[in-house]
Amino acid sequence: MAANEQLAMLVQPDRVHRALYTDAAIFELEMERIFARAWLVLGHESQVREPGDYFTTRMGREPVVVVKKDDGQIGVLVNRCAHRGAMVCAEGRGRVERFVCPYHGWSYDRAGELKAVPFSSGYAPGKLAELRLAKAPRVATYRGFIFASLAASGEPLEEFLGPATASFDDFVDRAPEGELEVAGGVFKHTYNGNWKLMLENHLDGAHPAWVHASSVAVARNAPDPGGERYSDIAVRQMRQNGAPDVVWEATGIWTTPRGHGYMGDYHDDDRLVAGLGNPVFDAYRAQLIERLGEQEADRILRVTLWNTIIYPNCSFMSQFRQLRIIHPLAVERSVVYTYSLRMPKAPPQMFRDTVAFANVVNGTGSWVLTDDLEVYERIQRGLTSNASEWVYIGRGYGRDVDDQGTQRGATGTSEVFIRGQMRAWLDYMTRDA
Amino acid sequence: MTPEQFLYHEARLLDRQQYEQWLELFTEDATYWLPLEQGQKDPYETSSIIHDDRTLLELRVKQIRHPRAHARQPVARTVHQVGNVVQLAEANGELDIGSTLTVVEFRNEKQRVYGALVEHRLRPYSDPRAGSTFRIARKRIDLVNSEGELDGIAILL
């Protein structure tokens, strides 16, 4: 096991060692010390409404089942039979009375208690009473989003989130009735690259002009959007990725003590941003006003946040209600699940916009995402080089500003958020528990 | 041209990287659709791996030719194998044709295989040179693993 002093040498203020992305032993340690300690985003309450509703997912590499228990609480069970280790629950989602292991029929209730074992007379009295499905010791929700931690103790969820609670508030406050639900299908995309590469990309205002040059160019040459054609959302969003440098520089970027981060909005297209006055959003705004009054409705609509990263496993954005959860599979292999959230009471057009946006930006066949994935894989291959040990994260270094419990980049293209992630990484990796 | 011959012609244009000519096979009101979910009914309330109208399909073709299309340059080599061609329906002069599609893609030292059930809606078209042929009014490609964990898809199917 790497000594903490050695780990500390890998993370320097403006650069990190390439081993963080390429070393399989470090990856194993990350699974233990980051993914088995931190609060992880698992999903949303709407995925498990009734007792017995469940969905399978992963916490790091741990296969887990998120289930609504009989007492109405949400449980997170490790999907591994206490007997010989088979996954008791098939991958996917559904509703169950009992989780029955396919191997020897051991069955567990919705809380993971072992209820029945065939041939139980073969065990010494009391022996089976010690066995059950392992569970995540801590489960909590914030504004409807489900979190769990594999560590028995640690800071409460809201302390972990810190200033990033405001991003979840923004997400939920925008919904008339303050409700969201997962809807519209789940994209699952893989890449041959380290999990950190995605988190380092989503707040990076310097990359779109390069990575997305081709989709920006074709969108600029497309017929101008107008008249509410289906293609408009795609063309508009791809064009916005080509915002001028001054816009990216002026966009706010913040990082929190736990490595979370969020960026301001770089959009000026009023068909994409509900707070900019396009009449297409009038009915939606009217719903918010009816519930909250004009002042509060407009305050909510004028919040300018784009992506938020919840370190170490989640990225989301409120404007089009996208949630991405990253599952590290190996040091150089990751899979990302992308969910859309619907505001159930909002005008139907709002969710159709969400679907169109998801397809263009986060879809497996997207013009935009595919170029990001290509670059992640090129980074991973490039970092196998021995020619240089270091990855530079120094843009804006020395000019970060303390800002109400966060650090803010001096400009929107600052790598302050990666430095924040790396500080959190080192803290998780070297603290005692 | 028979529907079967037309599908082979379409596949051959893709495999010879004649994407602009391939695009011309589509009608102005065409849709090109890779649903995300099995049996997906609707492209507006559920996401799609790809759901393009003619405008977006044209952007997709143009992106392939852009020198900084990182996921698309160098252009992937493909084989589109079309099989099991059957006529499913005929209405308003248009034919609904079902087929199976196996695609092998090779790019950057990585080979990928896709399998799909495909439905074309073909509209009869009289081509000044080729004579009696078709245009594609709708193409739906249901990948067998559309709900699975997939690498990014940067080719045309």
Could you list some keywords that capture this structure?
heterodimer, A: 433 residues, alpha+beta, Rieske Iron-sulfur Protein, Naphthalene 1,2-dioxygenase Alpha Subunit, Chain A, domain 1, 2 domains, nine-stranded antiparallel sheet, four-stranded antiparallel sheet, 15 helices, 22 strands, 24% strand, globular, B: 157 residues, Nuclear Transport Factor 2, Chain: A, six-stranded mixed sheet, 3 helices, 19% helix
How is this structure best described in words?
The complex is a heterodimer of chains A (433) and B (157). Chain A has helices at residues 4-10, 19-22, 24-35, 157-161, 165-173, 196-199, 208-211, 213-220, 232-240, 245-250, 282-292, 294-301, 348-362, 369-382, 416-430; strands at residues 11-12, 15-17, 40-44, 53-59, 62-68, 74-78, 93-95, 99-100, 107-108, 114-116, 138-142, 145-149, 181-191, 253-255, 261-264, 305-310, 314-317, 322-330, 333-342, 390-392, 401-403, 406-408. Chain A folds into 2 domains: 40-142, Rieske [2Fe-2S] iron-sulphur domain (Rieske Iron-sulfur Protein, 3-layer Sandwich); 162-430, Naphthalene 1,2-dioxygenase Alpha Subunit, Chain A, domain 1 (Alpha-Beta Complex). Chain A contains 15 helices and 22 strands. Chain A has 433 residues and is α+β, with helices and mostly antiparallel strands. In chain A, the strands form 5 sheets. Chain A has a 9-stranded antiparallel beta sheet with strand order 13-19-18-17-16-15-14-22-21, with helices on both faces. Chain A is globular. With 157 residues, chain B is an alpha+beta fold. Chain B has a single domain, classed as Roll (Nuclear Transport Factor 2, Chain: A), CATH 3.10.450.50. Chain B is built from 3 helices and 6 strands; from the N terminus they run H-H-E-E-H-E-E-E-E. The longest helix of chain B has 13 residues, at 3-15. The radius of gyration of chain B is 15 Å and the shape is globular. The relative contact order of chain B is 0.21. The chains are: A alpha+beta (433), B alpha+beta (157). Chain A binds chain B through residues 183-191, 210-211, 213-215, 217-219, 221-223, 229-231, 234-235, 238, 335, 340, 351-352, 355-356, 358-359, 363-367, 369-371, 373-375, 378, and chain B through 34, 36-37, 40, 43-53, 55-56, 58-60, 62-63, 66, 68-72, 147-154.
